[in-house]
Amino acid sequence: MAIEDGDEVTFDYVARTADGTVFDTSQESVAEETGLVEEQDKASYSSLTVTVGTGELIAGLDEGIVGLEEGDRETFTIPPEQGYGEWTEDKTVEYSPGAFMGMLEGEDPEVGQHVKIQDGQHGKVVEVSEETVRIDFNHELAGETLEFEIEILDVS
């Protein structure tokens, strides 16, 4: 039976950036080989189950698995606009150091620091000066072409 919107699908995957760097996988052995896994994380590597067409996956993968069947193996190359979007300057925001510290309950800003502000947005501190703290709220994979190698395990 070919996969269609609304089907519940279970699959294994290996996700890479265009340069071949593995950034996510459902397979513990791949995570260990590529240095993604730490001992406390081993339980988190398992097959992924989603309902197709509900937005649980990035668009390129969600659309790509439609028509596949249980047992199929496929590799998808997904451009930024069907993945995590293009990187845009308008998703970088400047705050005063005082405002930043107020949002994060007194933490001093540091370049590279990952933050979650009060409205739930996640970002990365990219610049700190006496006058401003600049945070990039683009997804860390924005602007990246991605490759997903998948194997369909179950369709219901």
How many helices? The count is 3
| Quantity of strands, as a count | 9
* Highest CATH level, the class of the largest domain: Alpha Beta
Largest sheet descriptor: 5 strands, antiparallel
Broad shape = elongated
Question: Termini distance?
Answer: 9 Å
**CATH domain topology of the largest domain:** Chitinase A, domain 3
Report the C-alpha radius of gyration, rounded. Answer: 19 Å
Please bin the fraction of helical residues: 10-25%
Q: Give the DSSP E fraction (strand runs of 2 or more residues).
A: 25-35%
Low-confidence stretches: none
Mean pLDDT: 91
Pattern of helices and strands: EEHEHEEHEEEE
Instruction: Please indicate the count of domains.
Output: 2
Going by helix content, strand content and strand pairing, the class is mainly beta
Structure characteristics:
five-stranded antiparallel sheet; four-stranded antiparallel sheet; mainly beta; 9 strands; Chitinase A, domain 3; 3 helices; 156 residues; Thrombin, subunit H
